[in-house]
Design a protein that fits this description.
Oligomer: single chain
Order of helices and strands: EHEHHEHHEHHEH
Bound molecules: adenosine-5'-diphosphate
Number of strands: 5
Shape: globular
Distance between the termini: 7 Å
Helix content: 55-70%
Low-confidence stretches: 153-157
Mean pLDDT: 93
Number of helices: 8
Structural class: alpha/beta
Length: 212
């Protein structure tokens, strides 16, 4: 069965590391897997991504930010995610609707119900079958994210959320944990503070139980 799996967590929690490992694991078992990231995954989405993650010319209004993310999502769901799932390909996405609720809702303070409604509209009601929330302390995530950036050629900074202070990331983390508490069947929390291989094993177990 083609599953729609999403990875969530604060910056530096280990999402891309674990997504790559899970993709390889599933492909090794003969499954067709498509890995995507939000915002992005379509031409429109990648263009908006560069606006969202690099814009420093003027402050971005939180509602403008919300709708840019939702525009990317609507495009990704209709052009890529739905057709892939219908064709039997499992889709793994780095961030989805929970990110918007955690960052724009809990982090920026936008009305949670409004964010939720925008999410439902943009995703056309599509919900992940399973969401892996890699829980990580804000300080640890930021430390990792900064050292990752430092190791990139030229030290390029791609993500504007990495410039937010630690209290913002704490609110986002707490928001994620609330989301997980409200939807325990869908959102599975793993401890991101452990070894990469241990976390990978735990995620494989979660996905297997979900029917992959
Ligand atoms: P994210 O995609 O959530 O921002 P990444 O997967 O890019 O996070 O990980 C950020 C950095 O932390 C990378 O340099 C990665 O190698 C490292 N990292 C990931 N998981 C762990 C872990 N469990 N323990 C220590 N370092 C980790």
């Amino acid at each position: 069965m083609a599953l729609f799996i999403t990875f969530e967590g604060i910056e530096g929690s280990g999402k891309s590391t674990q997504m790559e490992l899970l993709k390889r694991h599933m492909e090794g078992r003969g499954m067709e897997v498509l890995a995507l990231r939000e915002p992005g995954g379509t031409r429109l989405g990648e263009r908006v991504r560069s606006i969202l993650l690099n814009s420093s010319e003027e402050p971005v209004d939180p509602w403008a930010e919300l709708f840019l993310y939702e525009a990317c999502r609507a495009q990704l769901v209709s052009l890529v995610i739905r057709p892939s799932l219908e064709a039997g390909t499992t889709v793994i996405c780095d961030r989805f609707t929970d990110s918007t609720l955690a960052y724009q809702g809990y982090g920026r303070g936008l009305d949670l119900e409004a964010v939720d409604r925008a999410n439902v509209l943009a995703a056309g009601g599509l919900k992940p079958d399973i969401t892996v929330l890699i829980d990580c302390e804000a300080e640890e995530g930021l430390r990792r994210a900064w050292s990752r950036i430092g190791s990139k050629e030229g030290g390029a900074r791609e993500d504007r959320f990495e410039r937010e202070d630690v209290s913002f990331h704490r609110r986002v983390r707490d928001g994620y944990l609330r989301i997980a508490g409200a939807e325990p069947d869908r959102v599975k929390v793993v401890d991101g503070g452990g070894e990469i291989s241990t976390i990978h094993r735990e995620i494989c177990y979660i996905i297997k139980k979900a029917g992959a």
